[in-house]
Amino acid sequence: MMLAGFPIFANLWREHLEKLEEMAQEIILKKGAMLFAPGDSTQGFYVVDEGAVRVYRLSPQGKEITQEIAGRGSAFALASPFSDTYHCFAAALKDSRLYLIRKKEFLDLVTGDIKFAAAWMRLLSLLVIRIRERLTDLTLKSPKARIAGYILLMAEMQDSSSITLPVPRKELATLLGMTHETFYRTAKELANEGLVRFTGQTIDVLDQDLLAEII
Predict the structure, then answer these.
(1) Were 35 and a residue from 90, 139, 151, 154 both cysteine, which residue would form a disulfide, CB within 3.0 to 4.6 Å?
(2) Domain count, the chain
(3) How would residue 163 be classed by pLDDT, with cut points 50, 70 and 90?
């Protein structure tokens, strides 16, 4: 089953997973291609099979503010089936393959199958808890712990000790809730301590255990 390996669907009943597969549509995006923009009619939500998608908004001054980087196995735009239009941008950071879970069929399943509706509500509740935990991390954890945690997450997602950052470091600093000056200074500390090596957009993880201890 093509959706069986996605974490978001891991605890669904097989019958429900089969129904989601019936409504899934493969989407192929080239690097830089726009998936949707604010005001576009919602088509459903997406899961990333290969590649990565950046979800972002524009500030009143026109600055791009990254909200999410959805890598392999991730889901995004989960609220879109319950909205008429998208409220942000989504663009491929690299060549990507996604699956669109189509809006109409998904809503028909939610309204027509109370067992699925209850399972989906539980899933969304757990996601809210994780978001709150992430906000707590951004508030309470040190910049060094935030950067270390992000590097380890990327290493896991890319299944490699040599990772490629999906966005420029300045933008990543904003995503992690710090100024770019703080990001550069802290990243240099990690490099000087022999934990990582930065080369352009590439980060080599030199001591995964010590990075884990930081967080």
Answers:
(1) 90
(2) 2
(3) confident
Alpha-helix residue ranges (DSSP H) falling in the chain: 14-23, 103-112, 114-140, 143-158, 169-175, 180-192, 208-214
pLDDT tens, residue by residue, 120-144: 998 888 877 776 776 666 666 889 9
The last residue of one of the domains, among 137, 152, 176, is 137
Helix, strand, or coil (residue 129) = helix
What is the distance between the alpha carbons of residues 26 and 156, in angstroms, rounded to a whole number? 24
| CA gap 195, 168 in Å, rounded | 20
Burial-class residue 177 by CB neighbours within 10 Å (0-12, 13-18, 19+).
middle
Q: Are 88 and 79 in contact (CB under 8 A)?
A: no
139-162 pLDDT tens trace: 668 899 889 888 887 787 677 788
Look at residue 33 and tell me if it is in a domain.
yes
